[in-house]
Amino acid sequence: xxxxxxxxxxxxxxxxxxxxxxxxxxxxxxxxxxxxxxxxxxxxxxxxxxxxxxxxxxxxxxxxxxxxxxxxxxxxxxxxxxxxxxxxxxxxxxxxxxxxxxxxxxxxxxxxxxxxxxxxxxxxxxxxxxxxxxxxxxxxxxxxxxxxxxxxxxxxxxxxxxxxxxxxxxxxxxxxxxxxxxxxxxxxxxxxxxxxxxxxxxxxxxxxxxxxxxxxxxxxxxxxxxxxxxxxxxxxxxxxxxxxxxxxxxxxxxxxxxxxxxxxxxxxxxxxxxxxxxxxxxxxxxxxxxxxxxxxxxxxxxxxxxxxxxxxxxxxxxxxxxxxxxxxxxxxxxxxxxxxxxxxxxxxxxxxxxxxxxxxxxxxxxxxxxxxxxxxxxxxxxxxx
Length: 385
Ligand code: GLA
What we know:
Helix 3 (124-140) packs across helix 4 (146-161). With 385 residues, this protein is of the alpha+beta class. It has helices at 2-13, 89-100, 124-140, 146-161, 168-175, 215-236, 248-254, 260-284, 288-306, 311-321, 349-364, and strands spanning 19-30, 40-56, 63-67, 74-76, 108-114, 180-185, 190-195, 201-211, 326-332, 337-345, 370-373, 380-381.
């Protein structure tokens, strides 16, 4: 994988790269739409990644970009100019945010290769940003703490790509650890890792094949609705800053005074925070079945309260429930299409894949792909560069 990025660089730019980095994709295990509400998330990084190979360039030569998925070499003299190639906005966005922040960055050439399915809910875009940021730090000789680097990459996505994501994806790619789940508190941005309770379990990510064109605006709508719910609670309780400060008791006490949709969004986020905390308790006791039940409950809340599921995702979760050896399943990431996650016994892999593919086709007429992932280490430089 790394050699592909390196070879692509050499072939495209005629010299060997000076830096090579790797940034993995992530799976949101539990804690849906909680990151931008200063809540809790349990995530992990997976053994699918973006590799970036890069070198410094001169002002005359300018910027150069190539990817194995978009093999045309794009040369950009002026990084402020928008390119036809949309993927370039990610690395250029990272460069621009670094430059604005006073980091000594200059023109560079970049070749990327990866195996994270694009648009599959596994955060290929965050991995592209993070792998670029790591290379730029290495090439131009500066260091950035991982949490700050995650924020820089998020800003690149918010301001240059125009996707209003939270911090979860970049944070997970940078800070996750092998065979451990990452528990993040998005208020303090503190985190700790929790060992997987068994070594015979794996994560399956199943693609619904649905990409709603409205997913991005629906995501932004939800962000607004969550902010509106927080504003309401802040108006009745000065201790409330965000939905993180709201409890289920408060929701019940105020249910008649809130718009039905606002109430449901708040219920989801507050419930997700509770589910993450109790899920961790179960994991630490090795209680996988109980943990799995929480995943199903999370999906139900997405379906009924946050309304970010769709028939296809519900169907996938419904099929997963019928497969022996599956502990739990839910939609993962933004929703409105995208992918589901399941936690299952490694021994059930084949049965799971066969059943999901056949039953999903029967129910929806659609094909699906299941990606089994093991929990891999977070992002970093690849040393043999
Ligand atoms: C997307 C965003 C994340 C997070 C999830 C929902 O993946 O990029 O920041 O908000 O949706 O939990």
